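Session log. Operator J.P. requested a structure for one protein chain; no other inputs attached. Running the standard single-chain path with token output.
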Amino acid sequence: MRGGGNAQPLCVPAVRHHMFMRIHHAKKLLDLEFGDMAVVREIHTPPHDLNCMGGLRVGKELKMVTKQPIKGPVVVLLGEVEIAMGPDMAAEILVDVIGKDA
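Structure written below.
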């Protein structure tokens, strides 16, 4: 390495900070609160389960409609369609929260 060998890349701290911030904002769909708006980031369910989800895929915007207590269903609004799913499936979907519906 030229220049004394002590040169460190200047972009590494910024990249690490950016990566930390993205991870920090990711939530499980199950952890959203009523009225939260989010964008689907990752889906960790089998493809067969997604066939019943009415168009839910990475990059889609959704809104949390309701979450029932004690292992009840989670209902989200995807466009104009309400989709209900069990809490186990909702825990396998990661989203980025983008705001709260007024």
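Operator note: The beta strands are 26-28, 36-43, 61-67, 74-78, 81-85, 93-100.
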